[in-house]
Each structure stands twice: as C-alpha cells, then as structure tokens.
Write a structure and sequence with these properties.
Helix content: 55-70%
Radius of gyration: 28 Å
Order of helices and strands: HHHHHH
Largest sheet: none
Number of strands: 0
Length: 164
C-alpha cells in the first residue's frame, strides 16, 4: 500500500535536507571556502558571471589535460599565481603605456631566458626549425632580419657599457 501524499512529501523533504546538510558540511569544513565566499561577495556584481565562467573554463581545461596528458607524461599544468583576471583600460590614450615598448621588453627578456635555459645555444631540433623558417623568408624579409639582428647585436654590446 502506498504512503499518503503528506508522508511521501515529508520523506522527500527529509532526504533533501539531509543531502543539503551533507553538502553544506563539506563546504564549511574546507578552510578555503570562507575566503571564496568573501571574495565573491566583495566582487562587483557585474563581474561575477565573467569571473565564474573563466574559472569554470580553466578548471575544465586543467582536468581534461590531466586526464589526456596531451603533451606527454612529463607535462603538467599548474595555476599561475601571477595571472590577472582584470584588463586595465585607460581613459585617455595619453595615459596608456607604450604597448610596443612593453611587449618588446617582455619578448626580449623571454628570449634571453629561453636561450639561457637551452644552454646558450639552439638544440638541433630548434636550429632545424629556425633554419626552415629563415629559408621560407622572402629576400626583403631576409634583409630585414639581417638588419634587425645586426642592430640587436649592437644594442646588446652597448648594454654592457652601462652599469645595472
């Protein structure tokens, strides 16, 4: 015989409350949960959807990469503690830093770190790839690369003339 509707509703409510109590207990037991809630509450309301979407996308990507190991067994993804979620927008063009200068400084520093990490010379596979790229250049592009690297070498020599 079936239960009366009131008893079914009460049993369903008890299961729902028990499940909610379990979920809430697990969340409250995690030491980072209060911080997450505090940050969310302080976040401007209009930013919340975008920030949550970014977090969802990044976590999904991280989990997929961990499962599939797309770059081989020696590759793992880690959170970037210096990552930024907000893009700084300047009100007037006069207030903006020179993006080309900033990009050049960053690219030059990255190249120097890459070369240093590679032992100061191109590995054979990398040398083959660079040579293939150079061979694909037009005569004008080749001349521009020669002029550019000649100037870079001169700047590199001048960089040692000035104390740090």
């Amino acid at each position: 015989m079936d239960r009366p509707p009131a008893q079914n509703a009460l049993a369903t409510l008890r299961r729902l409350l028990s499940s909610a109590d379990d979920v809430l207990g697990r969340l409250l037991a995690h030491p980072l949960f209060p911080r997450l809630v505090q940050v969310f509450e302080r976040m401007p309301e209009e930013d919340r959807e975008v920030i949550i979407s970014v977090l969802e996308r990044e976590v999904t990507t991280r989990l997929r990469e961990a499962e599939s190991k797309p770059f081989g067994a020696d590759h793992t993804a880690h959170p970037n503690p210096r990552a930024r979620l907000y893009l700084h927008v300047y009100e007037s063009p006069a207030d903006q830093p020179d993006p080309l200068r900033a990009d050049l400084i960053l690219a030059t520093a990255r190249a120097a770190r890459f070369i240093t990490a590679a032992g100061g010379a191109l590995q054979p596979d990398a040398a083959d790839a660079v040579l293939a790229a150079f061979r694909a250049l037009s005569p004008d592009e080749h001349a521009a690369m020669v002029a550019f690297h000649t100037e870079v070498l001169a700047l590199l020599a001048r960089s040692r003339d000035r104390p740090r």
